[in-house]
Design goal:
Rossmann fold, single chain, 34% helix, 9-stranded mixed β-sheet
């Protein structure tokens, strides 16, 4: 049986990553695509002949016999569009951030559970052995109970979050719109747009709920956050120093550096140098044997997982709804704290 997948919000990243991955997957039959503008749809149809076009997402879900859905619309529409799919019991890949409010994120997890559907967040690093190895070490007790975390992510995206075109996308079919990435009224900014990736990796490793956040942000020329600094408390009383920065020079790649301190030792995680080390107080240590490209971002695997789940294949989901929800509720509290100047409870 061929699997039919609908793509809601077929813009920059969907055209660059999701749609090619679906078309290359031998188990996929129909690919239906939704976007609101005729000019953009004409570009899609010319680039991907055979996809089925829809200007209305609800109409696509009503007309097509779909097995799964990709939601890649602007940040503030993710929850609305994911609800359409999850209400039908369809496995759904939701681009990050999963939602831009804590209530929406929790509601999506509840809706998916009620309807027997799986949520996948395409946190690319979660689908690489580097995150899975860190997850395994912490799960198996190498560092004991988590008591403190230092986590930072940084990206070379000063242009995008500064309200300018992202230079690397000048030859792409579509470019990331300022209205999504650099508009403070539409959940633009580094936290929603990038730091969510680092949190996705963290919450694959650390099985804890965030409960309180105090934060400060530094703004870009477009008045969205270039820089994020937060203190986070987890449900077991553990603490975290969290940092995000958008202004890495273009000559360098992504940085995610996480150090997790537990009752029995510590774990070092770094994608830039492709490193995982676990060091214990009893003198034991573990250095993971990772390949040279272990820290590279994975694009295809999340889409392949969506297709496999739709086929009924049993497969581990390293970026599920709980991971996405924890990231979203923390970020929601972080932005509320940055505005209020106070410690904020996670809703």
């Amino acid at each position: 049986m061929k699997i039919n997948i609908g793509v809601i919000g077929a813009g920059w990243w969907a055209a660059l990553g999701h749609i090619p991955a679906l078309r290359d997957n031998p188990h996929v039959g129909i690919v239906a695509v939704n976007r609101p503008d005729p000019d953009g749809m004409d570009k899609l149809l010319a680039t991907f002949p055979g996809v089925k076009p829809y200007f209305d997402a609800a109409e696509m879900l009503a007309e097509e016999k779909l097995h799964g859905v990709v939601v890649a619309s602007p940040h503030t529409l993710h929850a609305e569009h994911a609800r359409l799919a999850l209400a039908k019991g369809l496995h759904t890949l939701i681009e990050k951030p999963m939602a831009t409010s804590a209530s929406d994120a929790r509601a999506l997890v509840a809706l998916a559970t009620a309807n027997g559907a799986e949520i996948i967040l395409p946190y690319g690093w979660n689908f690489k052995p580097i995150v899975e190895e860190a997850h395994r070490l912490i799960r198996d007790g190498w560092i004991g109970e988590v008591r403190h975390v230092v986590a930072q992510m940084a990206s070379a995206l000063a242009d995008l979050f500064g309200g300018e075109p992202m230079i690397e996308t000048k030859d792409h079919l579509f470019r990331p719109p300022v209205s999504t990435w650099a508009d403070p009224k539409k959940s633009g900014g580094y936290g929603w747009g990038q730091l969510t990736h680092g949190l996705g990796a963290l919450f694959r490793m650390v099985d804890l709920d965030p409960v309180r956040v105090f934060a400060k942000t530094g703004l870009s020329p477009a008045s969205v956050d270039y820089y994020d600094a937060a203190v986070v408390e987890f449900s077991n009383g553990a603490t975290m120093a969290l940092s995000g920065a958008a202004t890495v020079p273009k000559s360098r790649g992504y940085q995610i550096d996480i150090r997790i301190f537990g009752t029995e030792g510590m774990l070092l995680f770094d994608i830039e140098r492709a490193r995982i080390e676990a060091i214990r107080h009893d003198g034991k240590s573990h250095i993971a044997d990772l390949g040279a490209n272990a820290g590279d971002y994975e694009v295809v695997a999340p889409v392949s997982l969506l297709v496999d789940l739709c086929r009924g294949v049993e497969a581990a989901n390293p970026a599920d709804g709980i991971v996405g929800m924890r990231s979203a509720v923390l970020l929601h509290a972080m932005y509320r704290s940055a505005r209020s100047g106070r410690m904020e409870e996670v809703e």
